[in-house]
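Quick one, T. Sequence first:
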Amino acid sequence: MKPDRTPTLLRRQAGFTLIEALMVIVITGILAAVVAVFIRAPVEGYFDSVRRAELTDTADVALRRLTRDVRLALPNSLRVTAAGGIHYIEFIMTSAGGRYRDPTDGSTGGDFLSFSSATDLTFDVHGPMPAMAAGDFIVVYNLGPGHAPADAYTGGNRATIAGVAGNTVTLTSNPFATQAPPLSSPSGRFQVVPATTRAVSYLCPSATAGTLTRRWNYGFSAAQPTTFAGGSQALLAQAGVTCAVAYAPSASGRSGLLEVQLTLASGGETVTLSQQIHVDNSP
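Structure tokens:
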């Protein structure tokens, strides 16, 4: 009779030893370390590229917004200052424009915009009526700060609209007739400033990184404000923003060039974008 070897076979197939388990763990750890060395750089590179793309997108959107707004700025209303480590870019934003009826434009009839009678509060608009409503403002021949009364910030050439009917505009008062001397537009032009926007300011740090903020509808001020009471604000870029800003009007005074260099930093990544914005200052 052959001896029963079943117990011996079962014992041999029962599992693995502690030494074998430790060897598997060590080998697995070595393989994991080798793999980690090779994939670490590509993974870090991917996250770095994502951060750069997000910073670039944020900077590009902010500069496009600023460019669009500045191109709608009332002529000669753009002003730039720096205070407390912040650049302030301010302008009065327009929404439309048109031509008022004037005796010098060849009109033989109609309701002229008066530059002599403070009690004459109505005038006709040539051509299609621009979009405007009660509470909005019209500005005529703005020459800007230092040229009062032709300065919309001080109000000498800015009137509030009381109502619009057909092609006739009614004003709450007529500041154009109280100017000394009266300054009508050579081309009979006026610009519309929405009551919901009025002056607009962009605030961007010049040295210590901070946030890029847009403020609007806070009113009009003869001196450029660096503090704001009321109005609305929106954050265009989070912390890590710095700016370099320069504004140079042309020798003729009919145009200007606003240069903005916007730098955003986050997670060790830095992106810098520059923009040159043409400013139309022909009143």
